[in-house]
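Saturday, quiet lab. Running sequence design on the structure tokens for the scaffold JK sent over.
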């Protein structure tokens, strides 16, 4: 069975190491980088199942970048992790196409639950009468 590929982008190297180790231990193939440099080609090469993205990566804005990435890879879920806890930032990230927004500091158990949910190949279905709607 193929391991799910997770791409994590955050300029906090300590957090990057901790999250990468935790995800690898949980059975994911994790790729970590500290900047958005060449992110388009990295995504094309890796074809990740999930993108974990910080809001503020150096001088770059992860939410603005997510808007552009969604046009490139609309099927890759984006989960934001950030110390920006204002509801306006959370709303901006969700409007940009994020599936969730974890506020730092977060528990690894919570992150792993989100990753397991959104990196899954399982397609949830909603039945309304005779109609079936796929959520993914």
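Result came back. Writing it out in full:
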């Amino acid at each position: 069975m193929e391991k799910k590929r997770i791409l994590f982008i955050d300029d906090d190297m300590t957090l990057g190491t901790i999250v990468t180790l935790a995800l690898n231990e949980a059975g994911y193939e994790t790729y970590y980088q500290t900047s958005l440099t060449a992110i388009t080609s990295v995504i094309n090469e890796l074809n990740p199942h999930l993108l974990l993205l910080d809001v503020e990566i150096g001088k770059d804005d992860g939410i603005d970048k997510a808007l552009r990435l969604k046009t490139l890879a609309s099927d890759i879920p984006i989960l934001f992790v950030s110390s920006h806890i204002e509801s306006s930032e959370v709303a901006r990230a969700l409007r940009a196409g994020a599936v969730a927004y974890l506020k730092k500091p977060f528990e690894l158990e919570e992150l792993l639950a989100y990753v397991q949910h959104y990196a899954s190949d399982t397609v949830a279905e909603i039945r309304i009468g005779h109609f079936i709607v796929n959520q993914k």
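Notes for JK: Confidence is low (pLDDT under 50) at residues 122-126. The longest helix spans residues 13-25. Ask whether to fix the surface positions before the next round.
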